[in-house]
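Troubleshooting log. The previous structure file for this entry was overwritten by mistake, so regenerating from the original sequence record. Sequence copied from the archived sheet and checked twice against the printout by T.R.
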Amino acid sequence: MTAPDHLQTKAIHLKNSWTRHCNKILFMSSTANESFPAIGLDTQEGRDQLYWKTIRAFQYIYKHHFHEADWFLKADDDTYVVVDNLRWMLSNYTPDQPIYFGKRFKLFVKQGYMSGGAGYVLSKESLQRFIEGFHKGICSHKSAVEDLELGQCMENMGVIAGDTRDSEKRESFHPFTPDFHLFGHFPEDNAYYQYSYYPIIEVSLTHIFFC
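Regenerated output below.
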């Protein structure tokens, strides 16, 4: 997901780095750009348009590319993904399971919902149900809060919010910048504590090694 002004400042770096490890990469924007290329979703720009962009992006993928993949990753143009790690995590699941993954928050939705900032992954079955949710009127665009609304739709359609922690209960999706997660200190009244579905594990920097 990107914007016309971000193609040469943000999206280009994703195009030349981690997205090369995907089977297929689509850049979605409010307007089309044939030279980049970026697909135009015919929306406005702004935070209040994020959910519309996501809805229309998934509708486009369902119409044109649904049978070309088993898993569908939505990420913004300031996100970095280690695709090999993502493939390893997804290898424990099958695309016909109604499940989706990301950084799980716990407020507002009973089973929790995935942070848009960390990106999220829908199985093939989950994408099918997302599209059906709007077709049947079970899901709707009630709010511009993209990740929360998508999470509510997932729950209404019986899609499970998956656990993306590793065998040592460490998170694998992170909604903020690396320096925030590495060097930030989270007081217990911090909103991140209040939102995070799983306990936040903080470690001493003496246990972190850089190569």
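The domain at 4-207 is CATH 3.90.550.50 (Spore Coat Polysaccharide Biosynthesis Protein SpsA; Chain A). Archived copy saved in two places this time.
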